[in-house]
């Protein structure tokens, strides 16, 4: 457990970022819910609409709600300008505030509806104005019930805030997602422990305030409120006291190679004196858009991904021509600078266990298509929505009995457990070096090439010193070296290492 405690104590920045985000979302939820509850208490139509909307929001998965704000904010740039953030704090704040709305609003409306009519008549009888009745009678009587709603919203919001990692907002979701991708269970456990502990502490403090309001005990609710204020002040000072506007933000996707390369880039920049921070666990489309909008400064992307997702192309002109056209398209359409190719290809491919492939006499995608109706295929969470899968499906008439989604980390575990007969794999995955697996040939060339490219945002592309620091990476990494680095993170024995360690070893291997 010593590794657990050491890891836990390194999460200070993630914890304070999580506190600031969750508290801001709850605060915004309160600011919206309370005036709406007062209005709803005086209008049945408003109550039905407000509660119906808040309930509808709760039916949307938190992850989807967070992701939906990216295209919404991107479209609003036409109104508010290019400086409007599309990733990170703002979309996470808005999504989580909506998520916090229902319990606060419902409790507040219920409390207002169940106020003793005699008390309200007495207030009218002594000549109180509407504002006096609201602040001196209705609010104190409703406060304990409203606090109960705020407690519920707080626990929900603190838990859901871990998902903000997927849209580039630092949180306690960072160690959880990174640990899941690299099978570092200590990291996952530390993130979960910190998030659960934060929720329990928040619930206890808000419960103290709730009991104090119910008992009219000023020291009780005042003490709870003061403790919350001190905690928030500490979190805010930790988050913004050392804020460095020149920090370079490096984004990565949801698999080991992307995380390792992000660390390699960060270490290379830090050697030259730059401050860096990381945004992990991002989807392909979100990451590409974030770099184009300068919300993220650097990423590693792949020619085939950009070719199919962004250029909407299904033809295959060859590796060099594809790269040339992508460089030109990015320059003309997004302003993103493609600094160059890193030197290796990480192509989508299909893999099977060698014994299962031999049993079915499968060596190519054509062979696989013939037996697909009785097989299950596994893919990463975005694969079956990607143009690459559609191209393979249509080129070979591929129709499987079942398609299943797995995290890239667990793809090979699915093969070993016979949960899938074939999987979408990455050609630079170190686990493919084992003799246990076979990559299937693609005779119809349905899958494009996937050369790794270093992508710079329009803003960072102007920084000549940063560009100079990154240029030694171009053409420096072979697929064999990348496979070795990937395997050092993905392996499941006592020689497994963290991505930052793998990145340092990779840098030494390529002479940086």
Brief rundown of the structure:
The chain is of the alpha/beta class and 512 residues long.
Can you walk me through this structure?
It is a single chain. By secondary structure, this protein is α/β, with parallel strands linked by helices. The chain folds into three domains: 2-240, MetI-like fold (Orthogonal Bundle); 248-345 and 449-509, Periplasmic binding protein-like II (D-Maltodextrin-Binding Protein, domain 2), CATH 3.40.190; 348-439, 3-Layer(aba) Sandwich (D-Maltodextrin-Binding Protein, domain 2), CATH 3.40.190.120. Helices cover 60% and strands 10% of the residues. It has helices at residues 2-8, 12-41, 44-59, 62-80, 89-113, 117-125, 130-160, 173-182, 185-215, 218-240, 256-271, 284-292, 303-309, 319-333, 354-360, 365-371, 387-396, 411-416, 464-470, 479-490, 499-509; strands at residues 248-251, 276-279, 298-302, 337-345, 348-353, 376-379, 402-405, 422-426, 437-439, 451-456. The protein has a five-stranded mixed β-sheet with strand order 7-6-8-5-9. A three-stranded antiparallel β-sheet has the order 3-10-4, with helices on both faces. α3 (44-59) packs across α5. It is elongated and about 90 Å long.
Q: Any descriptors?
A:
three-stranded antiparallel beta sheet, 512 residues, elongated, D-Maltodextrin-Binding Protein, domain 2, MetI-like fold, alpha/beta
Please describe the biggest sheet, giving its number of strands, its sense, and whether it closes into a barrel.
5 strands, mixed
**In what range is the share of β-strand residues?**
5-15%
Alpha-carbon distance between the termini? 35 Å
Assembly context of the chains: single chain
The whole-angstrom Rg is 27 Å
Name of the CATH class of the largest domain? Mainly Alpha
Segments where pLDDT lies below 50 for 5+ residues?
none
Output the strand order for the largest sheet. Answer: 7-6-8-5-9
Number of strands: 10
Number of helices: 21
Number of domains: 3
Helicity level, as a percent range? 55-70%
Mean pLDDT: 86
| CATH fold group of the largest domain | MetI-like fold
CATH architecture of the largest domain: Orthogonal Bundle
By CATH, the superfamily of the largest domain comes out as MetI-like
Shape: elongated
Structure class: alpha/beta
């Amino acid at each position: 457990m010593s590794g657990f405690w050491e890891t836990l104590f390194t999460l200070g920045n993630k914890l304070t970022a999580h506190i600031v985000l969750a508290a801001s979302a709850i605060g915004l939820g309160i600011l919206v819910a309370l005036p709406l509850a007062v209005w709803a208490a005086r209008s049945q139509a408003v109550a039905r609409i407000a509660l119906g909307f808040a309930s509808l929001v709760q039916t949307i998965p938190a992850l989807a709600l967070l992701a939906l704000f990216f295209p919404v904010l991107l479209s609003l740039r036409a109104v508010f300008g290019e400086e409007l953030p599309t990733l990170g704090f703002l979309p996470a704040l808005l999504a989580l505030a909506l998520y916090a709305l229902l319990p606060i609003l419902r409790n507040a409306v219920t409390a207002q509806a169940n106020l003793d009519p005699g008390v309200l008549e007495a207030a009218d009888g002594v000549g109180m104005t509407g504002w006096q009745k609201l602040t001196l009678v209705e609010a104190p009587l409703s406060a304990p019930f409203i606090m109960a709603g705020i407690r519920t919203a707080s626990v929900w919001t603190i838990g859901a805030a871990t998902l903000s990692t997927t849209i580039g907002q630092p949180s306690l979701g960072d160690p959880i997602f990174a640990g899941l991708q690299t099978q570092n269970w200590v990291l996952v456990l530390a993130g979960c422990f910190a998030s659960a502990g934060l929720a329990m502490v928040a619930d206890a403090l808000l419960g103290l305030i709730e009991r104090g309001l119910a008992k009219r005990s000023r020291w009780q609710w005042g003490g709870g409120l003061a403790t919350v204020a001190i905690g928030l002040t500490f979190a805010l000072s930790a988050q913004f006291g050392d804020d460095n506007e020149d920090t370079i933000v490096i984004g990565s996707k949801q698999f080991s190679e992307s995380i390792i390369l992000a660390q390699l880039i960060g270490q290379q920049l830090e050697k030259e004196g730059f401050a860096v921070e990381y945004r992990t666990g991002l989807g392909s489309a979100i990451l590409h858009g974030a770099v184009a909008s300068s919300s993220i400064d650097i990423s590693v992307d792949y020619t085939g991904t950009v070719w199919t997702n962004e250029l909407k192309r299904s033809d295959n002109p060859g590796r060099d021509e594809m790269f040339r056209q992508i460089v030109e398209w990015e320059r003309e359409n997004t302003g993103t600078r493609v600094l160059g190719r890193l030197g290796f290809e990480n192509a989508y491919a299909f893999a099977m266990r060698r014994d299962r492939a031999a049993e079915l006499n499968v060596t190519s995608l054509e062979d696989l298509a013939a037996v697909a109706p009785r097989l299950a295929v596994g893919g990463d969470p975005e694969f079956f929505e990607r143009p690459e899968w559609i191209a393979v499906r249509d080129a070979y008439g591929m129709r499987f009995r079942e398609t299943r989604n797995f995290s890239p980390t667990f793809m090979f575990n699915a093969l070993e457990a016979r949960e899938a007969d074939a999987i979408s794999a990455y050609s630079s995955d170190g686990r493919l070096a084992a003799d246990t697996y076979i990559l299937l040939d693609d005779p119809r060339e349905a899958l494009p090439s996937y050369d790794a490219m270093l992508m710079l945002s329009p803003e960072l592309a102007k920084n000549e010193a940063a560009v100079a620091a990154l240029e030694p990476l171009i053409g420096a990494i072979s697929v064999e070296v990348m496979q070795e680095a990937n395997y050092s993170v993905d392996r499941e024995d006592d020689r497994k290492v963290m991505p930052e360690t793998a990145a340092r070893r990779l840098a030494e291997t390529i002479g940086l």
